[in-house]
TrEMBL record:
It comes from Salmo trutta (Brown trout). Belongs to the NAD(P)-dependent epimerase/dehydratase family. The gene is GALE. One of its GO terms (molecular function) is UDP-glucose 4-epimerase activity. Homodimer. Catalyzes two distinct but analogous reactions: the reversible epimerization of UDP-glucose to UDP-galactose and the reversible epimerization of UDP-N-acetylglucosamine to UDP-N-acetylgalactosamine. The reaction with UDP-Gal plays a critical role in the Leloir pathway of galactose catabolism in which galactose is converted to the glycolytic intermediate glucose 6-phosphate. It contributes to the catabolism of dietary galactose and enables the endogenous biosynthesis of both UDP-Gal and UDP-GalNAc when exogenous sources are limited. Its EC number is 5.1.3.2. This is UDP-glucose 4-epimerase. It holds the Pfam family GDP_Man_Dehyd.
């Protein structure tokens, strides 16, 4: 019988792509989401999950649940056996749920601390109560703060975060590490993402920000498709190749495959491990604009705007530890990332909403 893996925030961008990889790897994902970053489809199920069901010709167990609802979370974990046979004896948890926008976190720090930290504390305590000791956590390269050296390896100092979003990830990592020290039977992999972009090759699922996109590539894609007039480039006076910020962009499918590798690592009773998931190559904002112009065949208008609070000049990974210990390495190059992103955006010009011509 396939092992059940609880996926928090599984209706969102990264979570939904990981659900695909979990199913294809032979696991049985049980997804919870509160629709804060997911579009609600028919049957009160995220549109992304309904599309995955069509892609893979399967059904996905889903519950609308907010991790701040401690009672609801307890109830889910208690449903180990039911008359329908859908018991929840989770072998592991993949934790994606949380608020995730750097700029928004600078403007609304208390909201970010309340939601991200409380939700994770609830999850960890309920896991502890019900004997679930295996966890893969969606962390971020923002825990490294303004890099002291490049590329960034896992030994780089953490905690000098430049925004509240990054601080919540850092605090959560510290909570998890302390729990692993206190109870030696916990096995956790902390995955520090760099910048996920792209979409599933089917064009059926991808990133669909609610409101104005907070990340670069969704915004660029919306300019290319005509939903937005121009891109604001936040700062052109950084110490980089062209003055704009440099980041390590990783295909979301590569990222999802990294989670499967992490899940398998848990079986080794690994304790608490930390890995970067990135490509090791940095690209500037303007380089990304040019790459998307090539992929889309569209001119992408942009304006230079003041620097944005919480941003750093350059940030890219040393991903060699993940290759050595997880057997994982990013496969997709920048051209493929942009091609897949454009396929998603062009087939779904309004995202997952029902007036999209590709909506199903």
């Amino acid at each position: 019988m396939a092992q059940k893996v609880l996926v928090t925030g599984g209706g969102g961008y990264i979570g939904s792509h990981c659900v695909v990889e979990l199913i294809e790897a032979g696991f049985c994902p049980v997804v919870i989401d509160n629709f804060s970053n997911a579009v609600q489809g028919e049957r009160d199920v995220p549109e992304s999950l309904q599309r995955i069901e069509k892609i893979l010709d399967t059904s996905i167990e889903f519950y609308e649940l907010d991790l701040l609802d401690r009672t609801g979370l307890e109830k889910l974990f208690k449903q180990r056996f039911s008359s329908s046979g859908h018991g929840h004896s989770f072998s592991a948890v993949m934790h994606f749920a949380g608020l995730k926008a750097v700029g928004e976190s600078v403007e609304q720090p208390l909201r970010y601390y309340r939601v991200n930290l409380t939700a994770t504390m609830n999850l960890l305590e309920v896991m502890q109560t019900h004997g679930v000791r295996n966890l893969v956590f969606s962390s971020s390269a923002t825990v490294y703060g303004d890099p002291q050296r490049l590329p960034i390896d896992e030994q780089h100092p953490v905690g000098g975060c430049t925004n509240p979003y990054g601080k919540t990830k850092y605090f959560i990592e510290e909570m998890i590490m302390d729990q692993c020290k206190a109870e030696k039977d916990w096995n956790v992999v902390l995955l520090r993402y760099f910048n996920p972009i792209g979409a599933h090759s089917s064009g059926l699922i991808g990133e669909d920000p609610q409101g104005i996109p907070n990340n670069l590539l969704p915004y660029v894609a919306q300019v290319a498709i005509g939903r937005r007039k121009h891109l604001n480039v936040f700062g052109n006076d950084y110490d980089t190749i062209d003055g704009t910020g440099v980041r390590d962009y990783i295909h979301v499918v590569d990222l999802a495959k990294g989670h499967i590798a992490a899940l398998k690592k848990l079986k080794d009773n690994c304790g608490c491990k930390v890995y970067n998931l990135g490509t090791g190559t940095g690209y500037s904002v303007l380089q990304m604009v040019k790459a998307m112009e090539k992929a889309s065949g569209k001119e992408i208008m942009y304006l230079i705007a003041p620097r944005r609070g919480g941003d750093v000049a350059s940030c890219y990974a040393d991903p060699l530890l993940a290759e050595k210990e997880l057997g994982w390495k990013a496969d997709f190059d920048l051209e493929r990332m942009c091609e897949d992103l454009w396929r998603w955006q062009s087939k779904n010009p309004t995202g997952f909403t029902k007036n999209s011509p590709f909506s199903i």
